[in-house]
Amino acid sequence: MGDDVVIGLLRAVNVGGRTLTSAVLRATASDLGYRDVVTYAASGNVVLRAVHGAPQVAADLGAALTTAAGFEVRVVTRTSRQWDRAVAALPFADAARDDPARLALVAWDGPVDTTRVDAFDPARYGHEQLAWHGSELYAYYPDGMGRSRLTLPVLERAAGRTGTSRNWRTVLALAALAHERAGA
């Protein structure tokens, strides 16, 4: 079996006293035997090469980081191919071009229940635009994410899943890092 390039997204680190440095993230991933490990920003993003699939990386890296950090660290993973499909499926092309800082991709820890999300009414929270797509959610926050009442915990309750959100600039930066690793 060949290597997979895997993108790991840590949930809720470096907020609320839950500090986990990029150096610890890189070292922990390397200690698990992952190669070409690189982190992006200080918000819990890692791209690496692994001989086993993304779900195993999520489980192993989450367990090792939980031990290293002393608090639970959840990791959501995607292969480079899955990430590319998520980027290509973006329904908000104008927002991506004109306002990428207000556009987010929420990566869920599995597929959402469509009957649940179909019943969810985001208009109760403001005028954000949402598009549910398999294990991802695209969210455009025209007034900014920080002002929105449509928070990740609200979206998690609607989806019935655990997720983590990245703005579109970060999504594209992680795609570029994954492509670099694929060529390494």
From TrEMBL:
Coiled coil: none annotated. It comes from the Bacteria. It comes from Cellulomonas gilvus (strain ATCC 13127 / NRRL B-14078) (Cellvibrio gilvus). It holds the Pfam family DUF1697. This is DUF1697 domain-containing protein.
